[in-house]
């Protein structure tokens, strides 16, 4: 074969390889980031939500277990506990002040095996409550005044997320003994920027690990009782955000997001699963991303009803809706599981509001967000068995 023929053959081989690589790349780019498990949510019960309601002032956070739904109300400076299936208020506790069990500016709440603990940086302490609303005791420490979020481990120790540069996470006993400190586990351009290194707690019953998701998309952080820290990636990678300093409506200078998006808005953990309420890199709510707790491996995603934040309680999804004018707690069940949930609650009729129902006269329509482009269509909800007749 001549030199010219060899060159022509080599050129054709290179061109064919480029075409194959380009096709493979385009096919990979066309793959959706998330796979959506079929979910159709039914509203089971709610409290609040009307302008005339005086139930809540400003719901700061909430967490849910099989025993109770705990709501931290930073407006009324109280903790409210609801029975998750009997839809009744179990107790309310707290008031303004610095005395035992009183609050000034609470920011976070976490479940324990026997109640809940509330983080109040303005008072520089954590307050513990029992299952029946009894105030157990207050734990004071200077680090509590720098904390933004907390998590409770199965051995009773706390993991705090703080604003200190060398103490992004701090594990400490309730008596105040520091067990371990960790800096922010990723390299950032401005480590002194508290917004850039912000994280949210994935709430749930205490186990041997605490789990956090970074607000601006670096990843998931896991800390265990052996003081080991590991990080895992989110299913979607996000560009590093940039911030600018400008004066706010109060006339004071502050840091504001210039470019980027909030990747994680909160979440829960239950059994062997982590759930992160996620935004896309384009700033759209995409649902609840599910990860394997032990490895951080992405599993699938759920579309969510129209609430702001969610916690998982057994077979129920507990949503917090805050419009600035109205506040409400709403409890949802999957349509395939609704009958079992309703029977457990002693309810013999269907709920009057469904997220996927058509608009009817005198009824507010509630819609589930449409999945992002490229997401497989959700199959129809399974047919429901007839309800038993009223006794």
Report the radius of gyration as a whole number of Å: 24 Å
Low-confidence stretches: 23-30, 347-391
- Give the overall silhouette: globular
Share of helical residues: under 10%
Strand order of the largest sheet: 1-26-25-24
According to DSSP, the number of beta strands is 26
Q: What is the mean pLDDT?
A: 81
Specify the number of helices.
Answer: 2
Task: Give a verbal description of the structure.
The protein is mainly beta and 391 residues long. The protein contains 2 helices and 26 strands. The strands form 7 sheets. It has a 4-stranded antiparallel β-sheet. A 4-stranded antiparallel β-sheet has the order 2-3-4-5, with no helix packed on it. The longest helix is centred in the first third of the chain and has 28 residues, at 3-30. The chain is globular, with a radius of gyration of 24 Å. The chain starts with a helix and ends in a 46-residue tail after the last helix.
């Amino acid at each position: 074969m001549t030199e010219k023929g060899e060159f022509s053959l080599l050129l054709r081989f290179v061109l064919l390889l480029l075409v194959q690589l380009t096709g493979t790349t385009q096919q990979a780019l066309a793959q959706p980031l998330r796979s959506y498990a079929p979910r159709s949510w039914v509203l089971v019960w709610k409290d609040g939500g009307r302008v005339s309601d005086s139930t809540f002032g400003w719901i700061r956070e909430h967490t849910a277990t099989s025993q109770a739904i705990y709501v931290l109300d930073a407006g009324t400076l109280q903790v409210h506990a609801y029975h998750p299936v009997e839809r009744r208020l179990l107790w309310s506790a707290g008031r303004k002040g610095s005395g035992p069990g009183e609050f000034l500016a609470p920011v976070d709440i976490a479940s324990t095996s026997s109640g809940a603990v509330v983080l109040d940086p303005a008072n520089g302490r954590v307050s513990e409550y029992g299952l029946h609303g009894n105030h157990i005791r207050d734990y004071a420490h200077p680090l509590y005044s720098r904390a933004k979020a907390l998590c409770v481990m199965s051995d009773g120790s706390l993991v705090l997320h703080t604003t200190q540069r060398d103490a992004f996470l701090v594990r400490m006993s309730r008596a105040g003994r520091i067990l371990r400190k960790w800096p922010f586990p990723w390299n950032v351009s401005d480590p002194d920027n508290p917004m850039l290194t912000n994280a949210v707690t994935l709430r749930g019953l205490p186990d041997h690990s605490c789990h956090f998701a970074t607000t601006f998309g670096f990843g998931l952080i896991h800390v265990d009782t052996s003081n080991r820290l590991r990080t895992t990636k989110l299913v979607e990678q996000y560009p590093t955000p940039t911030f600018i300093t400008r004066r706010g409506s109060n006339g004071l200078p502050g840091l504001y997001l210039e470019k980027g998006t909030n990747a994680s808005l909160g979440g829960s953990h239950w059994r062997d699963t982590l759930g992160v309420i996620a935004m896309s890199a384009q700033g759209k709510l995409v649902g609840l991303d599910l990860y394997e707790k032990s490895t951080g491996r992405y599993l699938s995603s759920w579309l969510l009803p129209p609430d702001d934040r969610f916690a998982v309680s057994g077979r129920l999804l507990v949503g917090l809706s805050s419009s600035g004018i109205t506040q409400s707690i709403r409890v949802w069940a999957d349509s395939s599981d609704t009958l079992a949930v309703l029977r457990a609650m002693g309810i013999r009729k269907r709920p009057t509001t469904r997220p996927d129902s058509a608009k009817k006269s005198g009824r507010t329509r509630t819609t589930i967000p449409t999945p992002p482009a490229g997401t497989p269509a959700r199959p129809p909800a399974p047919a429901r068995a007839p309800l038993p007749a009223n006794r």
